[in-house]
Each structure stands twice: as structure tokens, then as C-alpha cells.
Amino acid sequence: MSTKVAVVTGSNKGIGLAIVRALCKQYQGDVYLTARDVGRGQEAVESLSSEGLKAMFHQLDINDLNSITTAAAYFKEKYGGVDVLVNNAGIAFKVADTATFDVQAEVTLKTNFFATRDMLTHFLPIIRAGGRVVNVSSFVGSRTLNQCSPELQQRFRSEDITEEELVGLMQQFVDKAKKGEHKQGGWPETAYGVSKTGLTTLSMILARRISKERRNDGILLNACCPGWVRTDMAGDKAPKSPDEGAITPVYLALLPAGATDPHGKFVSDKEVQPW
Ligand SMILES: NC(=O)c1ccc[n+]([C@@H]2O[C@H](COP(=O)([O-])OP(=O)(O)OC[C@H]3O[C@@H](n4cnc5c(N)ncnc54)[C@H](OP(=O)(O)O)[C@@H]3O)[C@@H](O)[C@H]2O)c1
């Protein structure tokens, strides 16, 4: 049987690194720590090595389409595809950041929504039968959903929203933010929140598509929240350690062979959450 392979984006630190650590301990296959910066990535691989864990490394900057396609081609060539993909890479402006809201909207949506979508566009076709795809979203995306206009909420919750419509809505948020018109458009004042509302909705859309187009392949795709975790992003007051934050993403990455759910859900503390 061919070697199985797991890939985690943005895993040189924080929750991503903790996910790689847990997979190195629990996954029967090769585990790839990926990072946009080769130096930071290799340092992280060495830190795991000093814990007695063996992670492999590949460069992967999700904001760079060439980096995504190069990595996808590498996994296709070396393993024939990917068995576990965890889209963990993400950014958040600090509350104290002085960047204007329109800049925060464009930059945050670029990585957390559009670039993560690029990852899914190029990696879903190479996810092997029995594969698991986990998108690290956030409870902030659920809270933000509830702060959107009733019309937007209806679209994000609908079963018939298409990927194209969702991409159009995310772009509309960025465009309206540039004109200072996002509030009139029914959007709340949170770029990070909207990016994660988009990512959770995208996960649900893609899961429905997989169920239709790859019915017999047993692939499970979910979005999740790691909880509030002590990392460079969330600061040192958060209650969970990175290893604790990794528990739900790793649970979804390791759903046993033959499992049929959860699929297309938003999961927190290993429980499906209302959307
Ligand atoms: N911490 C929390 O409380 C919390 C709560 C809910 C959800 N989340 C989500 O959990 C995920 C991980 O967050 P974290 O708290 O671990 O944050 P973090 O410590 O800031 O780590 C973020 C990781 O993403 C990487 N990254 C950013 N942009 C990238 C890109 N374009 N390509 C590849 N990698 C990129 C970073 O790489 P560099 O080192 O190169 O910057 C870093 O490795 C994020 O999606 C975040 O939104 C976190």
C-alpha cells in the first residue's frame, strides 16, 4: 500500500505546529509541516525533532499561487495525492493596529478566504479516497454571521449558495469597505469575522459538492474552531495551549475510515455547532 500523507498549512508556529506535533504522534503516514518562510519552517521541524518527532517539510505560501501549484504537483508526484489536508494558515490584525478598515478588509480576506480557497481549488482534486479536509475557521465567524443583515444571513445559511455567489459576496464586502459602505450593505465591522464566515460557508459548499461528485470516495470535509488559544495571534491571556487548540482539528483530520459524519459542518470542542 502506498504511503499516506498529511499536509498542514501555516504550521511553523501556533496551532498549526501543534497540529503537526499531534499528527506526528498519531498519524500512520508522512506528516508535512509547511511554511511560507523556509527558514522558519525548518527551525520548526528541528524543534519537533528535538522532541523525538519526525515531520517532513515543504515550502507553501498560500498567498502565492505558484507556491500552491508547486506543492500540489509535488504531493501528486511523490504520493499520488494527499490524504489529510489541514488549512490552518491565517492572519488577524491586532486590535491596536492602525491600518484603516478597508486595508484590513482586503488583506485579511486575501489570506483567510481567497488564498485558502485557492488551496482548496488546487488540492481538492488530489485528495485521495478516504481523505480528510479540515479548514481552521473560528467561532468569530459564527458570531459575525449573526451580525450580518437578515438577507446576508439567509444566503450564508442557504443550501443553494454557490461558490461563485460566495466569492462575489466576499468581494462585495472588500469593495464596500473601500468605499466605507459596508455597514449600509449589511456587513458588520470585522474583517477577520467576515473572512471566517466566508471560510465556514465555503467549507459547507465544497462538502456538498464532494458528496455529489465523489459520492463513493468517503471524503469528509469540515470547518472547525480550535477555541481561544495562546498564540502570537490571540496573545497570552487565552485559556487553551496550542496543543489543546489542536485537539478538534486533529479529531477531524483523523476521523476513522468508513465514518460518514461530521461532513460539511462547523465543529468546536469535537461537537457540531449550529450555523
Ligand atoms: N489563536 C486563536 O485563539 C484562534 C481562534 C480561532 C481560530 N484561530 C485560527 O487558527 C489558525 C492558526 O492561528 P494561530 O493562533 O496559530 O496563529 P499564529 O500563531 O499567528 O500562526 C499563524 C500561522 O499561519 C501562517 N501564515 C500566515 N499567512 C500565511 C500564508 N500566506 N501562507 C502560509 N502560512 C501563512 C503563519 O506563518 P508566519 O510565521 O510566516 O507568519 C503562522 O505559521 C488561524 O487560521 C486562526 O485564524 C485561532
TrEMBL record:
Q: EC? A: 1.1.1.184
**Record's keyword terms, sorted:** NADP, Oxidoreductase
Protein origin, superkingdom: Eukaryota
CDD domains in the record, alphabetically? Answer: carb_red_PTCR-like_SDR_c
| The keyword Transport is annotated on this UniProt entry | no
Asked whether the UniProt record includes Oxidoreductase among its keywords, one would answer yes
Q: Which InterPro entries match?
A: CBR1-like, NAD(P)-bd_dom_sf, Sc_DH/Rdtase_CS, SDR_fam
Pfam families membership: adh_short (PF00106)
* Main EC class the enzyme belongs to: oxidoreductase
One function term, GO molecular function aspect: carbonyl reductase (NADPH) activity
- Tell me the protein family, please: Belongs to the short-chain dehydrogenases/reductases (SDR) family.
Instruction: State the PANTHER family in the record.
Output: CARBONYL REDUCTASE (NADPH), CARBONYL REDUCTASE 1-RELATED
Question: What is the protein name stated in its UniProt record?
Answer: carbonyl reductase (NADPH)
Species of origin reads Dicentrarchus labrax
Q: Lineage in the entry?
A: Eukaryota, Metazoa, Chordata, Craniata, Vertebrata
Gene name on record? cbr1
